[in-house]
Write a structure and sequence with these properties.
HTH_67; 304 residues; globular
C-alpha cells in the first residue's frame, strides 16, 4: 500500500465529487425524468395533498434519481441513507414515484441526463478527449478498493453495470467514490453526536459547504428547526452567539473530516500517489470547465 501525502485523497475527492453532483443541479435530469413521467411540477400528485400543505425542498426527480440504485425503496430507507433530509419531505415523493417509473427506467433516464449534461457543460471535444478517457480509467481503478460493508448507497451503485462510453464511466466511477466516502461520513457524524440539522449547521459554519439557505430549503427544514439546531450546538460549546464555530467546534469539524479521510483512504491508496495526483489534476481541469459553463448556482456556497 502506497503512502500518500497528507489530505491527498481528500483533495482528489474534492475535485472528482462535483463532477458527480453537478447532475443534481442540471435541468437535463428533470427533463430526462419528465420524459418517463417523473415531474417535480407534479409533486402535489406524489404527495396526495394540497400544494399549500407540502414541505418545500427537493422533489421526486432528485429522490428518484439518487435512490433508484437501491430499488423501489420507501422513504424510511432514503431518510436513513441520505441522513440530512427531513423524513416528511422524502415521504412526499416515495414510494409513489415508483408507481410512475420503475427504478430501472429512472436509472436509464439518469444516464441519458448525465450524457446530456456533460456534453452541454464540457463540450463534445472534451467529452471525446484523451484526458476524459484517462480520468475515467483512473477513477474506475480507484473504485477497485472500495468496500460494501456498512455503505448502502455505495453498495447499491456498485451493483450497477459500468457504462460503455468513457465520460459515462467517469461519472459512474465518480459516483461510486462519492457514495463510498459519503456513507463513511455519515457514520462519523453519527458517532460525533450530530443529528441531521446539527451536522448541516456546523458544516455551513465552516464556510466550506453549501450555504445555509440552500441546505435548509433543499432538505426541507424550517427556519425554526435550523435555529433550534444552532441553539443545541451553542449549548455544547460548538457555536458562539454569532453562529461562528468555537475552537471546540472547529476541532470537531476537523476531526470529522480526518476520520472520514481515514475510512475513505483505501481507493486513493490503491490508486497510488502518482495516480491520485494525476486524477486530481485532470478532474480539477474538468471541474473548472463545468463551473465556467454554469454547472452550479452562483450562490450555492457560503455561510448565508
Amino acid at each position: 500500500m502506497t503512502s500518500l501525502p497528507a489530505r491527498a485523497g481528500r483533495r482528489c475527492h474534492n475535485a472528482v465529487n462535483p463532477l458527480h453532483s453537478m447532475l443534481y443541479f442540471s435541468p437535463d435530469l428533470d427533463e430526462a425524468l419528465a420524459e418517463v413521467g417523473v415531474k417535480d411540477a407534479d409533486a402535489a400528485y406524489f404527495a396526495g395533498r394540497a400544494e399549500a400543505s407540502r414541505i418545500k425542498g427537493a422533489g421526486p426527480s432528485y429522490f428518484a434519481g439518487r435512490a433508484a440504485a437501491m430499488g423501489p425503496v420507501g422513504p424510511g430507507v432514503v431518510t436513513a441513507a441520505f441522513y440530512n433530509f427531513k423524513h416528511e419531505l422524502v415521504a412526499q415523493s416515495l414510494p409513489e414515484v415508483w408507481r410512475v417509473a420503475s427504478p430501472e427506467t429512472v436509472l436509464a433516464a439518469r444516464l441519458r441526463a448525465v450524457d446530456r449534461t456533460w456534453r452541454r457543460l464540457l463540450g463534445e471535444e472534451t467529452v471525446a478527449s484523451a484526458g476524459v478517457a484517462e480520468a475515467a480509467e483512473l477513477t474506475l481503478r480507484a473504485t477497485e478498493a472500495c468496500t460494501r460493508q456498512a455503505r448502502p448507497l455505495y453498495a447499491a451503485h456498485a451493483d450497477l453495470p459500468v457504462p460503455d462510453e468513457p465520460h459515462l464511466v467517469y461519472w459512474h466511477a465518480a459516483t461510486l467514490l462519492r457514495e463510498h466516502r459519503g456513507d463513511a461520513h455519515l457514520a462519523v457524524l453519527l458517532a460525533a453526536g450530530l443529528d441531521p440539522v446539527e451536522a448541516m449547521v456546523s458544516h455551513s459554519a465552516t464556510g466550506k459547504a453549501m450555504s445555509a439557505t440552500w441546505l435548509r430549503k433543499s432538505r426541507g427544514w424550517t427556519q425554526e428547526e435550523w435555529d433550534g439546531a444552532g441553539a443545541r450546538l451553542r449549548e455544547r460549546g460548538l457555536l458562539d452567539r454569532d453562529g461562528e464555530l468555537t475552537d471546540e467546534g472547529v476541532a470537531l469539524r476537523r476531526d470529522i473530516e480526518t476520520e472520514t479521510d481515514r475510512l475513505d483512504a483505501a481507493p486513493y491508496e490503491h490508486l497510488g500517489a502518482a495516480g491520485v495526483e494525476r486524477l486530481t489534476e485532470l478532474a480539477g481541469g474538468h471541474l473548472a470547465q463545468a463551473f465556467a459553463a454554469g454547472a452550479f448556482p452562483a450562490d450555492l456556497l457560503g455561510k448565508a
